[in-house]
Write a structure and sequence with these properties.
Elements: H1 2-16, H2 21-25, H3 35-43, H4 48-66, E1 76-81, E2 84-90, H5 94-105, E3 112-118, H6 129-142, E4 151-156, E5 159-166, H7 169-180, E6 187-190, E7 193-194
Parallel strand pairs: 2-3, 5-6, 5-7
Antiparallel strand pairs: 1-2, 4-5
């Protein structure tokens, strides 16, 4: 915890003094990180090397999605933790789902792929996705047991999907409890990984 405090103070001191270019001129895993990334790093259980590697994987897959017809970064969330990729969202049909999975498979450093992919439903589309997301994130950030930045939340057709790295199973239980007690949530799926 002390390292995180020192790292944040050092980063902001350099940033406020206009010395941020020092970081970008040194070839290291810190290159290309912004202030928000620095905060997330301080809260993340992974080391900076793993975080940077996962960010590169995620960015490559998002770029491939952007360049593919029929797929949209607005409809698909991509997360990566220790090379395990999570594809979450809505695609038009099974062919696009296969295309999405193949894009991820063809990306260097990807270890394994997990999916929570749905197709547009004939039923009335869920209108509560944003409200569910905001209520859940608010609860997670206020909970002293959970680091709200370590748990990623996606909402697909009123179903909550968790990804991320946590330190114990109690954090997952808290997150699931909050999700199940938010009005409008149909179901909850967890890809949370406990890191010891």
């Amino acid at each position: 915890m002390k390292f995180r405090f020192v790292f944040i103070n050092l980063f902001f001191a350099l940033f406020l003094n206009g010395c941020l270019e020092i970081f970008t001129s040194i070839p290291s895993p810190l290159t290309g990180l912004n202030v928000y990334d620095a905060y997330l790093i301080s809260q993340d259980e992974r080391g900076i090397y793993a975080i940077t590697k996962d960010k590169v994987i995620k960015t490559k897959i998002q770029s491939k999605i952007l360049a593919s017809s029929g797929l949209s970064n607005l409809d698909i969330d991509v997360e990566s933790f220790y090379g395990n990729v999570y594809l979450i969202g809505i695609v038009p049909d099974i062919n696009h789902k296969t295309k999405l999975i193949n894009l991820a498979k063809d990306t260097a450093e990807v270890e394994k792929i997990y999916t929570y992919i749905r197709f547009p439903s004939d039923e009335k589309e869920c209108e509560s996705n944003l409200n569910i997301m905001l209520a859940l994130k608010n609860n997670l950030f206020r909970d002293s047991k959970i680091s709200g930045t370590s748990v990623r939340v996606s909402v697909v057709q009123c179903n909550v999907v968790f990804t991320g790295i946590i330190t114990d199973i109690e954090q997952e239980k808290h997150a699931i409890w909050y999700a199940k007690h938010i009005e409008g949530v149909n179901d909850v799926y967890s890809f949370l990984r406990v890191m010891k």
